[in-house]
Write a structure and sequence with these properties.
The structure holds 2 protein chains of 2 kinds. Chain A is built from 12 helices and 13 strands. By secondary structure, chain A is of the alpha/beta class. The N and C termini of chain A lie far apart (about 80 Å). By secondary structure, chain B is mainly alpha-helical. Chain B has one domain. Chain B has 15 helices and 2 strands. Chain B has a two-stranded antiparallel sheet with strand order 1-2. In chain B, helix 3 runs antiparallel to helix 11, helix 4 runs antiparallel to helix 5 and helix 13 packs across helix 14. The longest helix of chain B is centred in the N-terminal third of the chain and has 27 residues. Classes of the chains: A alpha/beta, B mainly alpha. At the A-B interface, strand 3, helix 3 and helix 4 of A face helix 3 of B.
């Protein structure tokens, strides 16, 4: 009788102690800001699903599919991701409206991967004033790496300027007496590359013998190419978006100008640029990359890309593996998931930002072997490594080391 | 001879609207005013921001309404005037440190001059030709703003960030709330000015030109002067709206003022009812909220859904919100009789 009672008390008190220990521990660990609970994390996003840049809308759809995959697999630390993505039509005022809707009406924890330099410029001040993380913005402008003035904004892809510096390093080594002709698109994209190239060449900036700019509204850039050839340059640096990059490759072949031809990363797509311009015209072209190309057969047996293809098949059957934007969205979403995972149960905005600035040697499945994501309190440029590549046959061949284009301040 | 025939037999571009039908009665106006005053106190800051944008686009649509509904001239170039107003305010605030409230009249005057000057060559054009000329203006504007020559002031493609004003005199009010009431005050002032303008001698001249240009000139109306004047007034009001828009959004960039904006404003005018000034607010609500609704229905097909909704509106109520208001008025009248 007595022993039974004792036993009962003992059991009860152990249970109480155990409960107190676990719940007390949990109370000490779990911290939430608006947008995160025990069961759900709200992530906001803004994409141009309509308007002039709607081709990039695929990125948002890929990210949605990726978070669906995570939720189907049980979520992150037991929490499901609620991904809320709105259309801004690439218009800055609309982006402001959508950002405010995400923050004040949907009450998201963070705004992740909003696309476009103008749209991000428009919402940067608002998000920083409200202390909402503006994570991994989808633009290559250099200004996102500014933790002192904008501690709540962080980039993702290599900036246009750091890529241009890599070309500058390569040129100074391989062609120190080269005469460089630059063709660039007359907007922030083109001007950032030009600045990066000049900064990278430094004292040797006089290697640039000609600069020509074109407007996206021009139907053809042929006359610019002819003009650049006449300068006698032996290096052609093509800072162009896909349509114009393909035109340039064709025109060079047509007028039989065979300089060293450099094409920027955004236009290095085999499916979107090289194939339409013709493989026979594209031999020997140089570029740089940080992600694997879904069209390139050398990655068919790569474990990371196998995971990527399996994901496409199961969660995003409409996704085109040849489209660089799909590869991009996958990598960005994976980085976001990694940061949430690192946050553990401390889902405050401050901690999300701290973890995003504390990525060490993280490698999403779709990045080139050797390219790693590293961030710190003073370095808000997650990817700043690229590798040079040369087009041969029907695919790109990577060569040389992984080069860092880090901009040292 | 044949040219004259053509002009005379040509149907007026815009259906004649009696001037009393252009406004609301006193009772309805007061109810609307009370709503605009009270609603912001009850909703979240985000909605207050949307209401501010509603008023701002409402002003821009009103400006177009004066031009098209009042004087019968078309314009697809309102985004250009809006951009000039926005940039004037932004540059004055950020580079010259001028108070935000003072930048608005300056933006208005500059846009008035710009519109008046543009109205001069546009005089020779009418109907679709005028629409095309203004269309050219709208497509050229974003590129002009990107020009390296102006980059020091405009910030080029990167645009300019504008500081949002705090409520003055230490009023216990959020920035959004203050900006809303400030915008409301400006909107009411401009609305009253517009109503009075259309009821005045000049307003009658506008409408005479709209209904029949030859008859108007036979009555002694200086057609050239009043046509350009209508352009100037419309551009001036659009400029003030642009300035307010820059302050509310806190950012100006060339990509904000593309032809899409001009078409949206035109759409707002048609949906609100051409020539019916209160309809401007309804039209503005349409261009702000309906794309959001369309996006809620289908993300991939938001454009198509928007098109279907627009088609339904045009098909069911071709005269826009004015038609709905007239029906409502008749219903109320019947109820009163019973």
């Amino acid at each position: 009788m007595l022993s039974r009672q004792k036993l009962r008390i003992a059991a009860f008190s152990t249970a109480v102690i155990a409960f107190a220990a676990t719940s007390g521990g949990a109370l000490a660990q779990k911290k939430y800001d608006t947008g995160a609970t025990d069961t759900e994390i709200k992530i906001g996003n803004i994409m141009p699903y309509s308007g002039p840049a709607s081709a990039y809308g695929v990125i948002g759809k890929t990210e949605q599919a990726y978070f669906n995959k995570i939720n189907a697999e049980g979520g992150i630390n037991g929490r499901k991701i609620n991904f809320i993505s709105y259309d801004d039509g690439y218009s800055p005022p609309k982006a402001v409206e959508q950002a405010r809707k995400l923050v004040e009406s949907d009450e998201v924890l963070v705004v992740f991967n909003p696309l476009g330099t103008p749209s991000n410029s428009a919402i940067q001040k608002y998000l920083n004033a409200k202390k909402i993380p503006q994570l991994f913005v989808a633009t290559g402008a250099t200004k996102w790496n500014d933790p002192k003035n904008f501690p709540w904004t962080i980039g993702w892809q290599p900036s246009y300027q750091s890529e241009a510096r890599i070309y500058a390093k390569y040129l100074m080594k391989e062609k120190p007496d080269g005469k460089i002709a630059v063709l660039y698109q007359n907007d922030d994209f083109g001007k950032d590359y030009l600045k990066g190239l000049k900064d990278g060449l430094g004292a040797k900036a006089s290697m640039i013998v000609a600069e020509e700019s074109y407007e996206t509204s021009e139907p053809s850039i042929d006359n610019h190419i002819v003009k650049l050839k006449a300068t006698g340059a032996d290096v052609f640096f093509s800072v162009t978006t896909p349509k114009f990059a393909a035109q340039a490759i064709k025109k060079l072949a047509e007028i039989q100008w065979q300089p060293m031809h450099l094409v920027v990363n955004v236009s290095a797509s085999v499916g979107g640029v090289i194939k339409p311009a013709g493989f026979e015209n594209s031999q020997g072209i140089l570029s740089a990359a940080y992600a694997k190309d879904g069209a390139d057969s050398q990655w068919d047996n790569d474990p990371g890309m196998k995971k990527f293809f399996a994901f496409l098949e199961k969660y995003y059957p409409d996704g085109n593996k040849l489209d660089g934007s799909v590869v991009y969205g996958y990598g960005a979403a994976q980085t976001m998931a990694k940061v949430i995972e690192m946050c553990g149960d401390d889902l405050t905005r401050a901690n999300v930002m701290k973890q995003a600035a504390g990525l060490k040697d993280f490698t999403p499945d779709t990045l080139l072997p050797g390219v790693r994501i590293n961030t710190s309190e003073a370095d808000f440029a997650p990817i700043d490594q690229l590798q040079m590549m040369r087009f041969k046959g029907e695919k790109w061949e990577l060569f040389g080391d992984i080069i860092s284009g880090e901009i040292s301040n | 001879m044949s040219a004259v025939d053509e002009v005379v037999t040509e149907a007026p571009a815009v259906e004649a609207v009696p001037k009393r039908a252009m406004t609301l009665g006193y009772g309805t106006s007061l109810v609307m005013l009370a709503l605009f005053l009270i609603v912001p106190l009850l909703v979240k800051n985000f909605i207050v921001f949307q209401l501010t944008m509603l008023l701002i686009y409402g002003l821009a649509v009103l400006a177009l309404n004066i031009l098209t509904g009042g004087s019968g001239q078309f314009s697809l170039g309102q985004s250009a005037f809006y951009a000039v107003g926005a940039y004037t305010s932004a540059i004055l605030m950020e580079h010259a440190g001028v108070n935000y409230a003072l930048t608005l009249p300056i933006a208005g005057v500059i846009c008035f001059a710009f519109g008046f000057l543009f109205g001069q060559p546009a005089l020779r054009l009418s109907g679709v030709y005028l629409a095309l000329a203004t269309f050219a203006l709208a497509t050229a504007m974003p590129q002009l703003l990107k020009l390296g020559y102006f980059e020091h002031w405009t910030g080029g493609v990167q645009g300019l960030v504008v500081t949002k004003p705090d409520a003055p005199f230490g009023l216990p009010m959020s920035q959004d709330m203050w900006l809303y009431y400030f915008t409301l005050a400006v909107t009411i002032a401009i609305y009253i000015f517009s109503v009075n303008l259309l009821r005045s001698r000049s307003g009658r001249a506008f409408m005479a030109i709209r209904d029949n240009e030859i008859a108007a000139s036979a009555m002694g109306v200086d057609v050239a002067l009043y046509k350009t004047l209508a352009f100037g007034v419309s551009a001036g009001i659009t400029g003030v709206a642009g300035g307010l828009g820059a302050i509310a959004v806190q950012f100006v960039a060339p990509d904000s003022y593309t032809i899409t904006l001009a078409i949206s404003l035109f759409l707002g005018m048609v949906v609100g009812g051409v020539g019916w000034l209160p309809g401007s607010i309804v039209g503005s609500a349409f261009i702000i909220f309906v794309p959001n609704i369309a996006e809620g229905i289908s993300k991939g097909l938001s454009g198509a859904v928007f098109g279907v909704l627009l088609f339904l509106v045009i098909f069911l109520v071709p005269h826009g919100a004015r038609q709905v208001a007239i029906v409502a008025q008749q219903l109320v009248g019947k109820l009163k009789k019973n």
